[in-house]
Design a protein that fits this description.
Elements lengths: L13 E11 L8 E9 L3 E6 L8 E6 L8 E12 L2 H7 L8 E10 L1 H16 L9
Antiparallel strand pairs: 1-2, 1-4, 2-3, 3-6, 4-5, 5-6
Length: 137
């Protein structure tokens, strides 16, 4: 095979449960904005969950605050993957009406240097933290 393609390396992902805000890019500067739950994050991207339908390939601003930090990280990203949560499984566990959730993979395209350093610092702390026992085990 020709060496026409650059091999992409995956950054290590870390589970975090923090709220974030996604704002879709628009020509008029007034893009739609959605609250999302951050599932995991790496230096190259994030997996988020929201009740809003977002088109694949959408450019967006993504802001979230890492635990222990007071200033949010702001990145420009692109939606590269989308999955609808399995509503039937959740309905079986609950008798109440359940909103559909969508999970989106966001690749980071641009980030300020200070945000990158803050993320690196946080992710190094996550990597070095002792494993917590699983309360469900």
């Amino acid at each position: 095979m020709e060496k026409r393609y650059k091999k992409l390396t995956r950054a290590e992902r870390f589970n975090v449960q923090v709220l974030g805000r996604i704002t879709l890019e628009s020509n008029d500067g007034k893009g739609e904005s959605y609250i999302c739950n951050t599932i995991n994050v790496s230096l190259s991207g994030a997996l988020v969950e929201t009740g809003s339908l977002i088109p694949m390939g959408s450019l967006l601003k993504y802001a979230f605050c890492m635990p222990g930090f007071t200033i949010p990280v702001n990145v420009i990203g692109e939606v590269v993957r989308g999955v609808k949560d399995d509503e039937d499984e959740r309905k079986a566990k609950s008798k109440t009406k359940v909103q559909k959730l969508y999970r989106y993979g966001i690749i980071f395209l641009d980030m300020r240097e200070e945000d990158k350093k803050a993320m690196e610092s946080y992710l190094i702390r996550c990597q070095n933290a002792p494993l917590q026992p699983d309360p469900g085990a």
